[in-house]
Amino acid sequence: MLFHLQKTVNEWNSRSHLLPFLRKASVVICIQSEDDTFFIHINKGNVELLIEENHHHIDAYLQGQKEHIISLLSGEIKLRQATVSNVITLQATFRTALYLETLFYLVKPYKYVNNI
User: Fold this and answer.
1) pTM attached to this predicted model
2) N vs C: which end of the chain shows fewer Cβ within 10 Å?
3) What InterPro entries does this protein map onto (predicted)?
4) Are the beta carbons of 50 and 67 closer than 8 angstroms?
5) Is 40 helix (H, G, I), strand (E, B) or coil?
């Protein structure tokens, strides 16, 4: 799962059209699977993957089985789809949930963009 998370973080950082969107918020996301916990910190247009929690405030908790989280990161399922079908649990404010849904949608690998 670490590989897929790092790939997603790299995509967020490399896509220049996301920069204005990433500058708008400072968000810490806790992503938990059965045996792993990772943190993504979005701040001032920079996205970084953290192995340990260095922050006192976490804005969103995303929990699920490893294969479902990887499906979300790879663009195979949408965040809303995953939460409605209860394969992923998201604890966040409505605004943060919409922000994350948009981020995951926009970082979708290009091979899935043509299928929209």
Assistant:
1) 0.83
2) C
3) SCP2_sterol-bd_dom_sf (IPR036527)
4) no
5) strand
Count other C-beta atoms under 10 Å from residue 111's C-beta: 9
**Strand extents, DSSP E, 5-111:** 27-32, 37-43, 46-50, 60-64, 88-92
Tens of pLDDT along 49-102? 987 767 678 999 999 999 999 999 888 899 999 999 999 999 999 999 999 998
pLDDT value at 35 more than 70: yes
Task: Describe the strand order of the beta sheet including 88-92 as a list of residue ranges.
Answer: 46-50, 37-43, 27-32, 60-64, 88-92
Distance of CA 69 to the CA centre of its chain: 9
